[in-house]
Amino acid sequence: xxxxxxxxxxxxTALAVTAAAGVGAAWAATLxxxxxxxxxxxxxxxxxxxxxxxxALEAKGFxxxxxxxxxxxxxxxVVRGYADDGYDLIxxxxxxxxxxxxxxxxxxxxxxxxxxxxxxxxxxIPGNVLYLDARYSExxxxxxxxxxxxxxxxxxxxxxxxxxxxxQTMAKAFKAGAAATVPGIRAAGIITxxxxxxxxxxxxxxxxxxxxxxxxxxxxxxxxxxxxxxAADKGAKIIGCFADQLALAPSAIGxxxxxxxxxxxxxxAGMASDGSFLGGxxxxxxxxxxxxxxxxxQPYNPKVIDAKTWTAFETIWKDVADGKIDVAGALK
Length: 332
Hints:
Elements: H1 3-22, H2 25-30, E1 32-36, H3 46-59, E2 63-67, H4 75-84, E3 89-92, H5 98-104, E4 112-115, E5 129-132, H6 136-150, E6 155-160, H7 165-181, E7 186-191, H8 198-210, E8 215-219, H9 221-233, E9 237-241, E10 253-259, H10 261-274, E11 281-283, H11 287-290, E12 291-294, H12 307-321, H13 327-330
Parallel strand pairs: 1-2, 1-3, 3-4, 4-5, 5-11, 6-7, 6-8, 8-9, 9-10
Antiparallel strand pairs: 10-12
Helix pairs in contact: 1-10, 3-10, 6-7, 6-12, 8-9
């Protein structure tokens, strides 16, 4: 069994156990969960996966609500609105919620807050707030390694979304993974400063390809969809991100690093449901629960990636997952 298939099995099993143990009928009948999203539920990636997790909770009996496309300046108002309305668990989906939840959490001690981002530095995490270690550096390192293995021209590129520390670190890790895998490879990145502008993504991909890149990865939501479209039009190979994006370019996408946001949202709701929610901490699930390589019904698309390349990548990815590759050290 390949590492990707093992990862998928482990993630599915972990989620099933969490759901069975954590979503009791009595709780599910009354627990109210609100999801606040910085982007669109139809972005085909980061936000859509979390929304699908919320809808799965609704099917289990949870009462749900969500607001999409929330600007950072509006986050406190939206979050406090849900807290005032008595929602038991409020999920903020993205780096934008780190400092906001640290400030708002103590105002509502009866509510629980979960942000899919790391805890803000220099502050004590409130006892009813939980953060996530999403291993962004490790996933970007793995994507860089795979892109390098896929490249015929020894030149790869990454299109980033918002210009923030997370995106900057991912771009750096992508380049490090590529350089460690194929000596002499060129790895470039363009951070667009926007998660929700497909035109910017297309332009960035075209620029990278014009400078020689023949494999493109993105970390940019709707901007990334534009990058995929632009790269496909130019005949480049593509690695998707945040969701299975094979359908966007079936002849060009080799695989997608899909964030298991659907499973994460359900797992945290399970914790809130059964009383195992541990606020005041950073939750650090295994990387093979957080991220899955997927291309439709397979871990990779054999029309784009050959078996030898995938086997070489699996070895690297397993070493990353097992901690044998010091990604943090590679970024110093």
